[in-house]
Amino acid sequence: MRLVIAILTSGTEYVPILPGRSEAVRPGAAFQRKLRMPEDGFCRELAVYGSGLDLDVVVICPDRAAGEWHSYRLAEGEWQECGPLLPDIVYDRCFGCQAGERSRCRTLLKTLAEHKPFVLLSSELPGKWEVYRTLRRYPELAPLLPPTMRYDGAASLRAAARAYGDDLILKPAAGMQGRGIIRIRTVGGRLRLTGRSRLNRPFTLSFADAIGCIEWTKRFIGTAHYLIQPYLQLADSSGRPFDLRVLMQKNGNGRWTETGSAIRLGFPGSVTSNLHGGGTPRPARAWLRETYGETAADDLLGNIVRWSHTAAETLEQNYGRFAEIGFDYGIDRNGRPWLLEANSKPGRQSFRMLGDLQAAKDSVIQPLLYARLLGRRYSPFETNVS
Fold it and tell me: What are the ATP-grasp domain coordinates in residue numbering (predicted)?
């Protein structure tokens, strides 16, 4: 029996199939609709590569009714519902920006476990504050972490200004793709706020005094958990913010390996550089060599990969088994690297955008090879009968 690997997503959507250029459109004609998954291209690649590895890759998503779900299999290039399959391994790619979506995914995992044992391919990291507190206990990693404190209203902002100066970054403790990030700095005697909204749209505000700034920040943050850090000069000579993403994945032998790395460049003056906020990727090694010289760049990238390997093992020791983790690094104007974030559900679109087809392919196949290894370790699974 083939190993069934389920990609857990928060839901599906139907998109219209637009006619080709040569096709006439009748007035009032309704467009056909096509079923689409979140990360649709990634899910399709997993299904295609999985078939070549004798793995049955399906997509599952929770139904609105608690504990029920839908299963989909790729057949002749289309997603087709195939009944409530019970997976052997679950690959959690549920991002669930809304609390209800994530809650339904968690409920579904509990329901699946009650019907049949399965293996979770990769654990989920806690919030950024917990990850920061964990990593700073390790001497090799602690110097890479920016000074950080938790936001707790006006008093914490004033404390951060005293400790870090008058240029601060506030970021959601559970944020993603740069949404909700705020930079507060003093410019010409006024407090200027720049950042990205919950919809990932850039904004700029200015306040004459601290009271107005603090009140606006309080309303913007609401009940969300936030962190405060000093603003680090992580921009190139043209003022474009950049970071370096390293994708670490388990291979078919269960060992951590670097799949690939990429520089992400933002717009001049922007607070973030991630691709969802309009950033563009560059090949990491080539860009670093142009910026720092060949020897310095190779040493820097080698150290970053080594630190990423150590950080992956460290997080795994503390939070359970992982199949992959993406690490984001900033490099300040003095050439000092900073570990900014660890992401247990990393994207991989930068490799394809760069034309790095080998890294793009490896980033899809590695989780499948590791899933197959886990399947052999925990075999035999119970029969897949709902």
Answer: 135-373
- The percentage of the chain sitting over the pLDDT mark of 90, rounded to a whole number, equals 68
Domain 128-145+235-355: CATH superfamily, name plus number: ATP-grasp fold, B domain (3.30.470.20)
Give the rounded percent of residues in the chain with a pLDDT score beyond 70.
Answer: 89
Q: What is the pTM of this model?
A: 0.89
Q: How confident is the model at residue 275 (pLDDT cuts 50, 70, 90)?
A: low
Give the tokens for residue 232.
């680090």
If DSSP codes are grouped into helix, strand and coil, which group holds residue 353?
helix
3-state secondary structure 31-91: CCEEEECCCHHHHHHHHHHHHHCCEEEEEEEECCCCCCEEEEEEECCEEEECCCCCCCEEE
- Per the listing, tokens 């897949």 go with 384
**Stronger pLDDT, 172 or 64, i.e. the higher one:** 172
Q: Would you state the structure tokens that stand for residue 246, as one six-digit string?
A: 């390293």
Report the CATH fold assignment for 3-21+30-120: Rossmann fold (3.40.50)
